[in-house]
Amino acid sequence: xxxxxxxxxxxxxxxxxxxxxxxxxxxxxxxxxxxxxxxxxxxxxxxxxxxxxxxxxxxxxxxxxxxxxxxxxxxxxxxxxxxxxxxxxxxxxxxxxxxxxxxxxx
Length: 106
Known about the structure:
With about 110 residues, the chain is mainly α. The protein contains 5 helices and no strands. The protein has helices at about 10-30, 30-45, 50, 55-70, 70-90. Helix 1 (about 10-30) crosses helix 4 (about 55-70).
C-alpha cells in the first residue's frame, strides 16, 4: 500500500499572490495570439491606442479571464507551484536558476 503524501500548507501570500502570478504568466502564454495582436495594435496606434485597440483589448481580457476563473487551471498551477517549492526546499536552487550549463568540451 502506497503512502499518500499530504499536500503542504500554503501561506496566504502563496495562494493569493504567487500562484495567481503564475496563472497570469501561463495565461499570457496560452493567449499569445491575442497578446501579440494587442501589442501590435498599441505600437501602431501610439497615443490613440486607448480608442483604436478596444477590440483587441477586449479579446485579450476575455481570453485571460477564461483561465483566471478556471478552478482546474488554478489547481494545475498550484500543483506546479508546490512541486517547485518542494524542489527548492530540497536543493536550495530556484527553478529558473536550475538549468545546468555543460562545459563546451563535452
